[in-house]
Amino acid sequence: MTLVDGRGKASLLTCPYHAWSYQLDGQLFKAPCMDAVEGFDPTVCALPEFKLEVWLGFMFVNISGVVAPLAPKLADVEPFLKNYNAEDRHSTQTWHEEWQTNWKALVENFMEGYHLSVTHATTLDWITPTELCEKLTAGDVFTAYRSNYSPSLPQRLPFPVDLTPKEQRSSVLVNVYPNFVITVGPNCAVFLILLPVRVESVVIRMSVLVQDGADDLAETKGYIDLAHAFNAEDKATLEAIQRNAKPSFHPIAHLAPEAFGGLIWDFTRQMTRLLINN
Ligand SMILES: [Fe+2]
Fold this sequence. Notes:
By secondary structure, the chain is of the alpha+beta class. It folds into two domains: 1-49, Rieske Iron-sulfur Protein (3-layer Sandwich); 71-277, Alpha-Beta Complex (Naphthalene 1,2-dioxygenase Alpha Subunit, Chain A, domain 1). It contains six helices and twelve strands. It has helices at 78-81, 103-110, 116-119, 165-168, 218-243, 258-277; strands at residues 12-14, 21-23, 28-30, 51-55, 58-62, 90-99, 133-138, 142-148, 170-176, 180-184, 188-198, 201-210. The model has no long low-confidence stretch (mean pLDDT 95). Fe (ii) ion is lined by residues 109, 115, 119-120, 230, 234.
């Protein structure tokens, strides 16, 4: 049974099924009517333990317990994110959607700027046109690119004081393989956690992150509206792609240049490695 859900504070975790309660360290606190069970020792009963890492303010749970720590493998992307202080931002709006597309198509869509000026002709082209996209670095567990802002875009505010002039006018987009993507800009960030439901369906948990005190700014509200608008455009595109995703329709084709297609190459190569190794 899911012990807890949502957000809040609690001094005990109580299971909603039979009301077994646990301390916050996982140790069983109380199990109703179990005193009568011979051989039941509550002191050796506890919730299972998992390794946990915090990176960029996100908690990553190592369920298998055998994979290597994540953070060292993300070290190469940290210089590009460091000045944005994304770990100090908080969710100002979180929502869930289900899109009728394959989750990998959504990762690819998020990580390539090739479609920005076309799919998002009225929403993002004037902010982050395709031609200004720049591939950053990639590693065993991630790939990343920078979407530079159009010179005519007014400065997005507020931004952390450490940002360089280039960072003030760009967003950094990262895919931590396989199903976590984030775009970090000067004033806001958006992350997506992709939860595949079926081959052709994915539930997405999305959230907009802002700096302290920025929740009610007009700039923040404008960004949230923008996020909903470009998401709607991506949803319509990806669902159309999914409807046509039949093997017999797939010719051999070329990827776009490195600045756009390179990210798809990184992701596809890593997915292939995972499939071969499993
Ligand atoms: Fe898009």
